[in-house]
Structures are given as C-alpha cells and as structure tokens.
Amino acid sequence: MPSRHNILEELATKLAEVRQSDLFRQRRAATLPCSPLYDYAGQSFLSFASNDYLGLANSTALIEAAQRGAKRWGVGSGASHLVSGHTLAHDALEQRLAAFTGFEACLSFSTGYLANLAVPPALLGRGDAIFADRLNHASLVDATQLARADLTRYPHLDLVRLDNALQASKAVRKMIISDAVFSMDGDIAPLADLIKLADKHDAWLLIDDAHGFGVLGPQGRGSLAEITERSPRLILMGTLGKAAGVAGAFVAGSATVIDWLLQKARPYIFTTASPPLLAETLLCALDLIEHGDALRAQLNRNIELLRNSLHLRRFRLLPSRTAIQPIVVGDNAVALKASTRLRELGLYVPAIRPPTVPTGSARLRISLSAAHTEADTKRLVDALHTIENELA
After folding, report:
1. Label partner for 37 (CA 20 to 30 A): which of 8, 215, 344, 365?
2. Do 139 and 201 fall within a single domain?
3. 79 and 165 inside one domain
C-alpha cells in the first residue's frame, strides 16, 4: 500500500506535467463587481471574459431587488425545498419561468450543473440509452455517467449519425441530449430537427440553453423561442447566472415530468434551497430580460462589429451569431501567449485549453456583452490584429 508521502508525491508529479503542458489553471481574485472593467492584483482590464451578456449582474435594479428580498426573507433558506426551504418567492419564480419559456411547469435549482445532473438519472437507468452531442457541456457529460445508461456520443451536430444510432438502438427508453448554444464554439444546435428526431424515435430530448436564455428569441425567451416545433418529450434547462445576471438554474417541461423530477431528482431533493432573496431578484431580472430589446440590440451590434472588422490570417474566428466569439489558435502555448499579450494591452480574454476543448483547438474565448461600447469592441479588434501579427 502506498504511503501518504508517495501519494502526495504522485500528485506533485502530475501537477508538474500539467504545468509543462501549458494546461495549469489559476484563479484570479477580482476586486470589482462584474462589469466590463475587470480588476485584480492592482491592475484594471477591459474584460471580454464574462457571461453577463446583458450587463445585468451589477445593475441598480437587481441590487435593489436583492436588498428588498434580503429584508423580507433574510439570507438563507435553511433547508431543502422538500423539507422547509421552499418559499413563496421560489414558487413565484418557477411559475414565471414556466410561463416565460412556454412550458407547463418548472423546477428551480441552485446551479446549472446541478440541474443537468438531475435530469438523466431521474428518467433513465441501466439498459436505457443516451445520445449526446460530442461537444456538450461537462455537466451533461457527467449527467450521462450518473444515469448508468448506454451512451452514444454522436459527432457534433451530425443528425444523420444521430438518426442512425437511434434507429439501431433496442433500448426501451432513449434520451437525446444537446446544448442549444455550445459554450466553447458559439454555434447553435438544429433544435427543430432534434425535436423531430425525438418524436420519431419516442425519445426524451434534454436541451441545455444556458447561453441562449435571455439573449436569443423574442423578448429573450431563449433558443427554443426561435422555432415553432414543440413536443411533450422536450425538457429545457436554463441557467440564471449568465444573461439573467444573478445565479441558479431551472428545468422546464410537462407537469408530469416536473412532478417526477420532484420525486426522483437527487440533486434537487438533497440540496439546500437557494436563498429566497435570489428568487426575488430573479423575478426582477425576468422583467428586465422581457423588456430588454435595446440591450439585445446593443449586444448584436457588438457581435456584428467584431465579425465585420476582424480579419485574421493565422488564427480562425469560428462562425457564431451569439455572444460567444471563439478564436481558435491551436497550440496551448500560443493561446496562453496571446492571452498574456492581450492583458499587457489592457484587455482580458481567457485562453481556453484542453480538456475544456479538443486537443489542438486551444482558443481565445471572447464573450461580448450589451455593456460593451462600440469603442470597446474596436479596441479589442485592433489588439487582436496586433497580436496575430506579433505571433505569426
């Protein structure tokens, strides 16, 4: 049996290998609230690293809503939803989210990761089958493992391969799982076609709209609001810490599905309910999203400006009409150098490396926001042109 010293020595060796591969991750402690101005270690940067797509995280309206919520409810819920932690604020939020997204019912969660972990294991088990896009978020990957179902990972957006795999499956219960907006590529799944496949093969369809909710569709109702297709097999997960500017997540679906999750979803049943003051704040955030066409228009102007102004030769801007604008660099070390050089120019854009993205596709992940000005976006474009020339 290895000694404690040898176990620690093994970890130290593995950490050294991570560092040598330019894959070592570090945290930076920001000293300012979430905004385009990112400050740490006494330095200030124009940030393109936040998922606060509408610029709501530090808005006066949400701060005041949180203060009102804290005054009424305190700062903690005290227990899980099914014991005593569920409040009228949680109830109101779930009803509003269901109506806003066009589903019969909704269940709120503390995080998007927990929400995704909750669904597949509650609906599937051994002998069932999951069909997942290869570029799904890590939380969906982990959820498939917890379900203990047979897993098929189809090539990214390849619906022919998906259809064939579903047709060949002998499982009684099947589930298709896909991001709506893919968090590292910024592209959008063909949701209407996925719904048709779910109906054709009598399969559940779980859609993670973390990066579409609040931004896409009429009034920011999400990626699914851009299409007309619906199905009782459809289950939606959305997060509330990105465009909504607060924290938490939700799962929406038929009343039958939500009732079942309430009985069987372990990450819901065995987690302390989020503070009700956050539910109060999110009700305000939903109002801002619903009436936020001007914010979405500003975000879309920034997206259009970046894509029309950026002319890269060595690096590659991926096709995306969303707030996520990835620039593939390829090599881990070069991606780190590019990110470091951007910081030297006063801009913060994170370098994303494996295993978050496939090997050989390290990238700069640009997140645009309605809080960015035209001048901010132009400054980023100029800096990217400069850095590409320097690293060529």
Report:
1. 215
2. yes
3. yes
State the Cα–Cα distance between residues 191 and 185, nearest whole angstrom. 16
Which CATH number belongs to the domain containing residue 375 in this structure?
3.90.1150.10
Q: Provide the domain count of the chain.
A: 2
Active-site residue set: 183, 211, 242
Q: Is residue 352 part of a domain?
A: yes
What's the chain's Rg over C-alpha atoms?
22
Positions of E strands within the chain: 37-40, 43-47, 105-109, 129-133, 150-154, 174-179, 204-208, 234-239, 249-253, 316-317, 324-330, 347-348, 351-352, 362-367
Of 290, 324, 354, the position where a domain reaches its end is 290
Q: 201 and 167 in contact (C-beta within 8 Å)?
A: yes
Q: Of the residues 258, 290, 322, which one is the last residue of a structural domain?
A: 290
Whether residue 222 sits in one domain with residue 304: no
pLDDT tens across the length of the chain (392 residues) = 545 568 889 999 999 999 988 888 888 888 888 899 999 888 899 999 999 999 999 999 999 999 999 999 999 999 999 999 999 999 999 999 999 999 999 999 999 999 999 999 999 999 999 999 999 999 999 999 999 999 999 999 999 999 999 999 999 999 999 999 999 999 999 999 999 999 999 999 999 999 999 999 999 999 999 999 999 999 999 999 999 999 999 999 999 999 999 999 999 999 999 999 999 999 999 999 999 999 999 999 999 999 999 999 999 999 999 999 999 999 999 999 999 999 999 999 999 999 999 999 999 999 999 999 999 999 999 999 999 999 86
Domain that holds residue 257: 60-290
Give the global pTM. Answer: 0.94
How many residues are given for the chain? 392
